[in-house]
Structures are given as C-alpha cells and as structure tokens.
Amino acid sequence: MNDEKEKSPKVNINWYPGHMAKTKKQIIEDLKLVDIVIELLDARIPISSQNPDIAEITAKKKKIIILNKCDLSDPNQNEKWIKHFEKKGMQAVLVDSNSGKGIPEAIRKIEKEMEEELNKQTQKGRIGKKIRAMVLGIPNVGKSSFINRISKKTSAGVGNKPGYTKQKQWIRINEKIELLDTPRSFMAKI
Fold it and tell me: Which residue has the higher pLDDT, 21 or 154?
C-alpha cells in the first residue's frame, strides 16, 4: 500500500446562474427609483426565507420587514421575531396577505419610516412627493398577494410558481405611496 494520498486537482465551483446575476443587477438599478424597500419574509421561516443578497444591496435604503403568512406561524414566535428585527433597528410587521391582517399597520410603518424625509422635501418646497417603495423577497413568500392586498386591486398576477410577475409596474397604494412591482424576484441562495 502506498502511504501517499492520491491528490485531486483543486477545482473552484461557482454556482450563480446568469439569470440570478441579471436579476441582482436590475434590482440594483431599480433601487435608484425608490425611497424604501419592503422585504417580504415567510413568518414561519424568517431567516431561511431571507436572501443575504437583498440585505447587502439594500443596506443604504430605508427598509420595512413584512413577516407574511403570520396566520400559519406560532403567535409567540411571531412576537419574538418582531423583537429580533427591532433589536437590529428594523421595523417589522406581521401580515396575512390573504385576510388583510396587518396591512394597515404596514402602511403606517412605511409612512412613519419616511416621515422625516418627506418633511425635509416639504421644507425645500417639494410638496406632494410620493413615497416610492419596492417589494422584494424570494419566490413564494407572497409578494404578489401582498401587493394585491395593500393596493386593494389585482394588479399583480398571482401564481403558485416562482416568476409569475411578468413586467415592471408602479402601483398606487394611497395618496402617499406607490409600489414598484418587478418580475425579478430573488431566487434563494444555496
């Protein structure tokens, strides 16, 4: 027996499909159009449904965390997750996009988060500026359902497969807020 171990050539494998790179690049471009990011997470698995790329590229934007599907998760755990995000300095809201639970609070938190910025704009004479927001999240956390519920419309197509949203669109929420809905939802990082 030979005591020398057989050596294999070292191979670096980079798994990052082209469509994910394209998506990330487009979201970075679209971020220039918005004031605040609404990141949707699944309330049952908040950390697992969070894409680290989203945190990285939105680091300089105001952000609201939406813990969607809260009706399917444990109420005690929900409150712990709210506190977890608040400790990290992020506003978080429990939402059930199907029933509408939490939607009014989400709207209030978006407006509150942008209040100081809007006051600065008003002082500069820029009255009536809309809050422009972008909804981000991995596939199947309920982005289209959330958009439809918050806008009280069926503007965003809903499907049970990733990538259902087909085109970029601005959706009016109220007299203060507009949402940018994009077809580029982030795939989960593996």
Answer: 21
